Amino acid sequence: MDWTILSLGSEHYGRLEPYKVKHSGKQFFDIFIDLGLPVRYGGTMVRATASLIALFALISAPIVMIEGCGSDPFDIPCDPAIGCGGDGYICWKGPNNQNDCLPPCTTTSDCPPTDFYGNPVPLTCIKGNCYRPEFPPDTTTNDAGDCGEGDGGGDAGKSSAVCGEPCTPIPDGWSSVQAFWVGPVEKAPFYSEFNGKKTLPRFNGRANLDADPAECDMCSCAESTGKCTELSSSIDVRAAMCGQAGSSLSFGGPTNWEGSCTNANSIPAAEKCPVGSSTLCAQSVTVGPLGPPVDESCAPITDKLPIAKARVYWPKWQTAAVGYDVPGCNASESCVPSIDLPSGFRSCIYQRGERECPASWNGDRSVVYEVTANKLGFIDGRYCTPCSCGAPVGSLCVGQFRVFEDAACSKLISADPITSIKGQCTDVLPPGKAVGSKEITGLTYIPGFCEVTGGKPIGEVIPDPDQAVTFCCTVTES
Prior knowledge:
It is built from two helices and 36 strands. By secondary structure, it is mainly beta. The chain has three domains: 2-131, no CATH class; 159-212 and 313-381 and 462-473, no CATH class; 225-297 and 396-446, no CATH class. It has a six-stranded antiparallel beta barrel with strand order 11-22-14-25-36-24. The longest helix is centred in the N-terminal third of the chain and has 11 residues, at 50-60.
């Protein structure tokens, strides 16, 4: 087991207190940085996701010890064997034999006013980093690591051993990355070792996006709702039995009739139709269908997926791209030095956006998408169409039509169901009986069903063009 320093936080939402995490090997670090939030390893900010950090906390709780470690300007305690990454910080002995990550500087005025512990001290810029006067650098070694300079002596793995001539010119508008690797995500070197010194990438990118469609909740429609307010438009007394031809007289209700008992258009007993004939008027009574339902609709229902599936699956990148500065090999604005790199690494130039490679850098071109704390490199346009319902089908209105001999709806002749689909004909027995009153009661809405739409996946995940970076590398020597 060894001690490695991780600092969790956001460059846009304020630095959290760093934490010291005891771990075994590289596996947890790989888990942290795969998808996005910043993780400070030594002095270098890399990325992880909140969900993976929570997962890490759960699966590693038995072997994790956490303690507060302070904050900038001396970022966090560090392990000289690992260093502070490639952002200009170096690991140097501080007070109480505590190694600190010292910030970079050009002049003493660049140095912060306090040390790691908040003590006001006259920090001094020496050889590119801010030192406490009582803990100066060893001036006998070439820590500054100027590219191509120095006598090449000192310990094995010093900068002069990995950085030299020739220096390939950098075209206008491009920048250099001294060590660039691109390949399958599962094989990506999320930290590496150059010149005997472990370091972390200053660029983290991805390419070749793979994303499943959105998994949508199931849609359905509740049974329809509506109202029945329209009575039959026609009621007639016929001078013939049901199914036979004959004349008729209107037996409808009054204007604005709501269906209650009425004696409007009553027919006396033994009335003849036509007058003077021998044909009795009241041989049957017909009633037309009720009016159709009104104010109908169906409410859409969203049937939630089980929790394990009720989400849009996180997009997966197939290709990783990482870029490093090589410790001890200073960057140049004009050219890229010749560097003895580990297998799989190339010296490259880069520019934001999708670009064509300059003629002298056309050995390999990669367009990748930078992953940062607030930019994940992709735009997720996946969503589900909303649940909705069409017009109701199969609904109807039903009611009861009653005919009475007297004028007060007390002496029943017939009682028949009627619907909004079809009317009714009822014979009057014996024929010629008085038809004195009627009523329509019990109007009831019978629900139908609606065709469901929605709940379909739509859209896709695309790389974020604003995060595109083009890398162009030199021709690989055979």
